[in-house]
Amino acid sequence: MKAKPGASPAKPPRRWRPGTGIYVIAPLQPALSALIADIQARFDPKLARLMPPHITIIGSSGAGPIAPTTSVEELRVAIEPIATTTPPLTLALGAPMRFMQTEIIVLPLRPYGPLRELHERIARSGLTYAPPRFAFTPHITLSFYRRLSADERRTLLTMRIQDAAEITRIDCSLSNDPQPATHLLTLPLRGVLSVQPT
What we know:
By secondary structure, the protein is an alpha+beta fold. It has a single domain, classed as Cyclic Phosphodiesterase, Chain: A (Alpha-Beta Complex), CATH 3.90.1140. 26% of the residues lie in helices and 24% in strands. The chain is built from five helices and nine strands, in the order βααβαβββαβαβββ. It has helices at residues 30-43, 45-50, 72-84, 114-123, 150-158, and strands at 20-27, 54-58, 89-91, 97-98, 105-108, 139-143, 165-167, 169-176, 179-188. Strands 2-1-8-9 form a four-stranded antiparallel sheet. The chain has a three-stranded antiparallel sheet with strand order 4-5-6.
């Protein structure tokens, strides 16, 4: 049973196969996406093949994947009002780091401010999602599947990307491992940035 929009999520069903669920992601602008895709292809070709670089908003940390039985219309009703009132985001990238004492290498993003607000508004929209494994820790993944050598890890950790991530839309995709993800919905961020008087 779905919760009302704005309420806490409904309790996840008991039977929920691992590797399934709906993710909400934010694609990157083309230039930054191409740059990060090149890095992924060099250090983790499998990751590079699976999906373009992105920021996961719902489905990883802070909130697990949304129930795979959720319809596109239910997603639209819950998330479209949030996207419509969220302005495009410009997000600074941190230096590469290991994610949560794992071998995964990511570019961290500041977990506060407008990005957290977007995450929390979707998490409180009444959709049902799986329990998260970590607190909200937004990032862009550089290496996930491949075990890096010490030299490769050192090289990757010393890279610096000066460009900020520019987020103008969010996508909902259904994951059903080992099948490729299925795109369900794209919603542009249409909110207006407030301008402070000078």
